[in-house]
């Protein structure tokens, strides 16, 4: 597998789903050898073990290559590949690469800049031409395929793009939001981001130019994912304990450099600054912050969500796109971010605070938080953490090689605005 990113289990259902699971990884590296019939036997055995892992031996393993088919074949010629294995049902996700995302994001920004309330303008045309919601539709479509396979057929699923840290993170985390109500709680949502984005190695520093000048690898992939979450909140408004305001807050904080949560491209690099930076999670879990992003209409129910992929059901994320536009002043307070007068306090706390005096207080009492929320139990003076002591006892992995830029991004296709 490219970059050594072998299949890893992201989520596993309970006995009611026959322990069906979702796996993520990078593309295979059979390349030209696969074209002449030489395949990696070990990789085939690994995927066959995943297929049989929950006792579902009659159904082929669904492997979703999230890339467009043409891009996957181009990568195959360059040393990459995809799973053309026996008993693997291979389908293509059609989600375009980071260059297309960047150009669509900029095109949406240009559409907002051209919008004038006193003129007819070309807003609808500009939004359509950006292709932004076409790409969001592709992500939601792949999410629905994963959810349907796991929930309806109780079968395992493997997803990947080229390196497994952009499109794969988008689809895996959205699927988990749909399948698991825990991740639709406030604490669960933060755990989801920490696990599927930070810990699995999304390249925040490179994609958002954190501390560096933007390169050709710059792309707001995380913003695209946040708008996908926004679409889910619009379709299922009472299924999420958190409100849309947290999405705007996150969209702002990934760029501000105020917190160490999104520094660097991987966990190994991030650990070097943990003791000197503030954790966004510890700030959001403070009682005075908790209520800012709680959804008052939340109904704690163990239900599964099947997102609608029809664009007629999409809603423009006005709280994000119009936050610097005059139209943003008339938006409901709930959809905007925190008032500037109540912005987070500058406190000397870290991801794992050392001094008890700097330890943030616990979240609201259970009477104030829905039963679906996971209460954070800790001893006095114990550092605040998103995870329980049992979850933190696993040994840390050995440092791994730091990677270069994506090979796939060399092969960008023009988008609807004519960019590349």
UniProtKB/TrEMBL annotation:
InterPro entries in the record = Myotubularin, Myotubularin-like_Pase_dom, Prot-tyrosine_phosphatase-like, Tyr_Pase_AS
Name the source organism.
Cladocopium goreaui
Q: Which residues form the active site?
A: 161 (phosphocysteine intermediate)
Domain (Myotubularin phosphatase) spans: 1-321
Q: State what protein this is by name.
A: Myotubularin phosphatase domain-containing protein
Give residue spans, biased composition: Low complexity.
333-346
Kindly indicate where the leader peptide sits in this chain: none
Q: What single Pfam family name could you report for this chain, choosing any that match?
A: Myotub-related
Q: Which residues bind substrate per the record?
A: 97-98, 161-167
- Kindly state one GO CC term assigned in the UniProt record: cytoplasm
Q: What is the lineage of its organism?
A: Eukaryota, Sar, Alveolata, Dinophyceae, Suessiales
Q: Residue ranges of region Disordered?
A: 333-420
């Amino acid at each position: 597998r490219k970059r050594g990113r072998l299949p890893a289990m992201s989520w596993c259902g309970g006995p009611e789903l026959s322990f069906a699971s979702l796996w993520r990884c990078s593309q295979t590296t059979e390349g030209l050898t696969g074209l002449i019939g030489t395949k990696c036997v070990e990789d085939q055995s690994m995927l066959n073990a995943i297929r049989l892992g929950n006792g579902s031996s009659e159904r082929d393993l669904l492997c979703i290559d999230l890339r467009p088919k043409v891009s996957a074949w181009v990568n195959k010629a360059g040393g990459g590949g995809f799973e053309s294995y026996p008993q693997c049902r291979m389908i293509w996700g059609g989600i375009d690469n980071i260059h297309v995302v960047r150009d669509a994001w900029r095109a949406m920004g240009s559409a907002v800049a051209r919008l004038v309330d006193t003129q007819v303008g070309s807003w609808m045309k500009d939004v359509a031409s950006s292709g932004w919601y076409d790409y969001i539709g592709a992500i939601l479509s792949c999410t629905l395929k994963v959810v349907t396979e796991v929930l309806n057929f109780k079968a395992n699923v493997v997803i990947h793009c080229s390196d497994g840290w952009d499109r794969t993170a988008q689809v895996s985390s959205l699927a988990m939001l749909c399948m698991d109500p825990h991740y639709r709680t406030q604490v669960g949502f933060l755990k989801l981001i920490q696990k599927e984005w930070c810990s699995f190695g999304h390249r925040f520093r490179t994609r958002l130019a954190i501390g560096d000048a933007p390169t050709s690898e710059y792309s707001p992939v995380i913003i695209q994912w946040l708008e996908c979450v926004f679409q889910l909140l619009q379709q299922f408004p009472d299924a999420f304990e958190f409100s849309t305001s947290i999405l705007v807050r996150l969209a702002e904080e990934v760029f501000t450099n105020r917190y160490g949560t999104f520094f660097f491209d991987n966990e190994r690099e991030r650990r070097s600054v943990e003791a000197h930076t503030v954790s966004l999670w510890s700030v959001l879990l403070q009682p005075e912050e908790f209520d800012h992003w709680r959804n008052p209409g939340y109904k704690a129910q163990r239900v599964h969500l099947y997102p609608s992929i029809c664009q007629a059901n999409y809603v423009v994320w006005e709280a994000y796109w119009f936050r610097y536009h005059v139209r943003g002043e008339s938006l409901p307070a709930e959809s905007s971010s925190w008032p500037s007068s109540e912005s987070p306090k500058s406190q000397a706390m870290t991801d794992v605070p050392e001094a008890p005096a700097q330890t943030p207080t616990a979240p609201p009492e259970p009477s104030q938080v829905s039963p679906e929320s996971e209460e954070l139990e800790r001893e006095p003076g114990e550092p605040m953490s998103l995870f329980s002591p049992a979850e933190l006892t696993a040994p840390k992995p050995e440092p791994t090689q730091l990677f270069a830029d994506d090979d796939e991004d060399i092969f960008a296709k023009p988008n609807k605005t004519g960019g590349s």
